[in-house]
Amino acid sequence: MNILSYGLLALVSRTEASGYDLMLKIQPFWQAKHSQIYPLLGSMEEQGLLSAKWIQQADKPDKKLYSITPAGTDKLHEWLLEETAPPVMRDEFNLKCFCIHLAEPSEVRRMFAGRRKYHVERMKYYKDIQDAIPQEYRNPGHIGFEDYILLQKAVMRTKASIDWIDWVEQEYGQWTAEA
Amino acid sequence: MNILSYGLLALVSRTEASGYDLMLKIQPFWQAKHSQIYPLLGSMEEQGLLSAKWIQQADKPDKKLYSITPAGTDKLHEWLLEETAPPVMRDEFNLKCFCIHLAEPSEVRRMFAGRRKYHVERMKYYKDIQDAIPQEYRNPGHIGFEDYILLQKAVMRTKASIDWIDWVEQEYGQWTAEA
DNA sequence: ACATTCATGTAATAGGTTACATGATTTC
DNA sequence: GAAATCATGTAACCTATTACATGAATGT
């Protein structure tokens, strides 16, 4: 049981879902491809943490719907109370910052402008999903609360990244004024 | 040449360094163990991007100092102008948020308090390193500028995480008032 | 006609962590 | 006496990405 497995189990604890559903839902918070997810679901089924049934669909491929078992719920609850692993962040942009001394000011500016655009797009992506959550689901009584606060985190951290870029452009501009 | 290799090359472009030095320097921005770093340095040496010499040290083990070659500098500069990969963030805490409905309010509060403490400690860690950079190195003329802005990013994003936790505690508290 | 969405799976490869291996010096 | 720091390296294992494989329905 690795971290991703627990994340999938957590999503299934909310509503039954297919591997495909889970891939889409976990995407904004943990990048994982279907090729990683399907085997994990299979092994959790074997361990009795999940149960599955095939659903026939007209006009769409059949899907395997997973539900959490009582054993799965117990396991999830144990995990919640355990120490949480520190977050891992890997951003190529940070490493590029180690050698901005090699680039000309115009190149540096283009680099930062490009990353700013990326973050602005991300911000819109998160806000659009968040805005789609109805007001009445945004309190702890609903599972929508969980999505709502997670998206808020993404929004706030993304805003910090944009603010940082603006701050750098100011600091950098002071020393390398140019049109 | 993967992303980490470029990051190491970028660090060496600033000052010659040993694998051990590089492991420590890259740590706050890209988690990598020495077992991953040493082979990458070896392969970059083989490719002619780095050159190395052994330094004998009294009272400390000998070390292998790497310097960047002209070919290495060219390669780095090319990399700088290429598309930057999107950042990858994996935080177990986010996945735990998917099932806070399973926990009691006291458990949820403990969870958030624990993560808050973690971020506050990280904040101090980043600020201490940043504060150690002399004022006169904090402008684009010095390589210290690169460290200075990167630490500022870490500080700003960490602050966003703490602010988010405070915001969640407020939102959560409104609905589950308790002493 | 071509791309995308839905839907599942396996195989091969690359990236990253833990463990094994060694060993002197310094700090608690 | 035990732990940490400095310093390098390899082996085994786990995690994650890319590629292979299939196929109907819908949208451009």
TrEMBL record, chains A, B:
Pfam family, one: PadR
The Transcription regulator PadR C-terminal domain, residue ranges: 89-171
Domain Transcription regulator PadR N-terminal: 8-78
Cross-referenced InterPro entries: Tscrpt_reg_PadR_C (IPR018309), Tscrpt_reg_PadR_N (IPR005149), WH-like_DNA-bd_sf (IPR036388), WH_DNA-bd_sf (IPR036390)
Signal sequence residues: none
Origin superkingdom: Bacteria
UniProt-recorded name of the protein: PadR family transcriptional regulator
Originating organism: Saccharibacillus brassicae
